[in-house]
Amino acid sequence: MNPLARFGSATTAPAFGGELPLGCDPLLAEPSPLPESCLAFSHGRAALRWLCERSGRFDCAVISAYTCPTVPALLEKIGLRLRLVDVFSADWEQAVGSEKGRLLVVAPAFLGHEPAVDVSRLAAAVGESGLVVIDAAQTAFGHLSFETAENTAVISGPRKCASLGDGAILRMHRVSEEERARVKRLPWAIEAVAAKLAARSLMACRSPENEPDALAFTARAEAAWPDAPHRVSDSGLWRLSWLDPKAHADARWRNWKALEQALGDHVEILRLPGGTPFNLSILVEDRAAVLARLHAARVFATALWPNARRRHDLHPRAEDLARRLVGLPIDQRYTEADMLELAKRVRRCMRR
Amino acid sequence: MNPLARFGSATTAPAFGGELPLGCDPLLAEPSPLPESCLAFSHGRAALRWLCERSGRFDCAVISAYTCPTVPALLEKIGLRLRLVDVFSADWEQAVGSEKGRLLVVAPAFLGHEPAVDVSRLAAAVGESGLVVIDAAQTAFGHLSFETAENTAVISGPRKCASLGDGAILRMHRVSEEERARVKRLPWAIEAVAAKLAARSLMACRSPENEPDALAFTARAEAAWPDAPHRVSDSGLWRLSWLDPKAHADARWRNWKALEQALGDHVEILRLPGGTPFNLSILVEDRAAVLARLHAARVFATALWPNARRRHDLHPRAEDLARRLVGLPIDQRYTEADMLELAKRVRRCMRR
């Protein structure tokens, strides 16, 4: 029994959301090593940058108009031309066909679900000089669940979906021993990992008194992730090897379904097929007011990518999501009973 | 049940020593606030510097020749003349009598035990313009157990003796509301605290795979403590309020006695009265070899202050301790059975 579990205040409702606390992940009985075709980095951008550097210079990146703005910022910084495509659009192949030079396509496994684009057709369209990378940064185990071929790759984000300090996995069709050795010689992101683990350890106290410091550490971690390639920490890799992929996915789907059912018809829910859900996304009008009421009810829901790099005229769906999407937590720390309580609070905050 | 408790390897002996893991402290049923006469800082040096700044300029500091070298370094940096006195020496009053100007006496509660000097006589000797501060940085609760008077103070070090990220307490005879407000406005040591909590969270996995990263975080934390006054983090203060002083002291004395008995006559043990032991200190010849054997046996014992600012001719006792002292862990994470296992390993390492 962890004595920290005794911490907590009876007078304050439990919080939903915020940093995943240390120790919340379902574990295997024995650790399971990473597949040979995988390389482990500190975080998604580090993996993406490595992928760009190891593959030689791309000329243009075809990316979603609704993604974390650090992704287009990084690609521009390393000299790629950007071509934005609206989310859920059929325009990907057309965009690929109309761009010149070596192409990098970043195809989102949006919110952890199946890519909405046909990856093998895109891979054929970019040709041998191009590359399609499935951006599964919102999954813990996309590197196990999405297929790769000669000119496709996957980047997953276990650090975002499990209580790790760091960890993003790049899966490719083949990894040479020489490349593996080069990644092992990279530095690790000690400052960001320290802040992240500090935030998670305070969240594990499950007490409001620790939340402001936890938030400060989270902000510090986000600011400290470097653009340059960094490997995963040794402890991060070891802890990743203990995570149970099936129990992880089962818990998230169980909670997603419980919350979906409990929310009923009162809320507009984004429903996407396959994969493992990162959150349960709802679409609301007057999001700022809803978020404020949710926060007052201790539901630390987030507006996802309000600053996504879209153009409202060219990317109407991205614009809509960037303005209205709210992510509700359905992760492995929660039970179905928690989801009923969460639904109650969400419905109350929507009614006003 | 914390799932991290399942981590660990059956093939490797458990480790002794190293960073206190998160969650190892005995807790109260209800939190207990700090006494009114206390101010909470990030770490001992921050408290000491605040004490010097709030008291106006001291001319000279009378300190032990056997103390952490960061203490004389700080006092010199802020312009005090240093007068070193040998440990366990009767020379303190004579040193005070022979120094001119406003005096600050740093009287050690050495290894958590009772001060070997007579604090009230020293306080009389330094007069109204001087100050005697009991350096109880090797205790979690020296601010509760050592008495203060008009020109005496205590600095305790809960961060060193409990699984906190930060926390050093300055107890004075009186604290004004204005001074309390000024301390609250100080920054907190976010970088050091992040690294410390990261190290502790990895230590809580109780697995050798995490130890190298934990050590890296510990080193980073030690390098990151600022000289300037910093307040304690809000979460550090809150966590401190939950610690059980009596159960803490009982566990340390229970372990100290169990280890002392199990070590028997094979080892030279430093025995000091009162207080709460920081460790069980033994004195060994050829310390480097003994430490290497202990580390190989996964006993992460430490040489205490090999770089203490002493002069071997003037401070023979400090010289002896700085050369021969090894601190063995007896803290609250251990049971009596652990102490028997620790004694076995220590005796094996001493016999060679």
Task: Annotate the secondary structure layout.
The structure is a homodimer of 352-residue chains.
Chain A: E1 16-17, E2 38-41, H1 44-54, E3 60-64, H2 70-77, E4 81-85, H3 92-98, E5 103-108, H4 119-126, E6 131-136, H5 142-145, E7 152-156, H6 158-161, E8 168-171, H7 177-184, H8 190-203, H9 211-224, H10 234-241, H11 245-263, E9 268-269, E10 280-283, H12 287-296, E11 299-300, E12 302-303, H13 316-324, E13 325-328, H14 336-351
Parallel strand pairs in A: 1-11, 3-4, 3-5, 5-6, 6-7
Antiparallel strand pairs in A: 2-8, 7-8, 9-10, 10-13, 12-13
Helix pairs in contact in A: 3-4, 8-9, 11-14
What can you tell me about this protein's structure?
2 copies of one chain form a homodimer. Chain A has 352 residues and is of the alpha/beta class. Chain A has 3 domains: 38-184, 3-Layer(aba) Sandwich (Aspartate Aminotransferase, domain 2), CATH 3.40.640; 190-224, no CATH class; 243-351, Alpha-Beta Complex (Aspartate Aminotransferase, domain 1). Residues 1-5 of chain A have low confidence and may be disordered. In chain A, strands 2-8-7-6-5-3-4 form a 7-stranded mixed β-sheet, with helices on both faces. A 4-stranded antiparallel β-sheet of chain A has the order 9-10-13-12. Chain A has helices at 44-54, 70-77, 92-98, 119-126, 142-145, 158-161, 177-184, 190-203, 211-224, 234-241, 245-263, 287-296, 316-324, 336-351, and strands at 16-17, 38-41, 60-64, 81-85, 103-108, 131-136, 152-156, 168-171, 268-269, 280-283, 299-300, 302-303, 325-328. The N and C termini of chain A lie far apart (41 Å). The first copy, chain A, has 14 helices and 13 strands. Chain A binds chain B through residues 1-7, 22-27, 165, 190-191, 193-198, 200-202, 204-205, 207, 209-210, 212-214, 216-217, 220, 233-236, 238-239, 242, and chain B through 1-7, 22-27, 165, 190-191, 193-198, 200-202, 204-205, 207, 209-210, 212-214, 216-217, 220, 233-236, 238-239, 242.
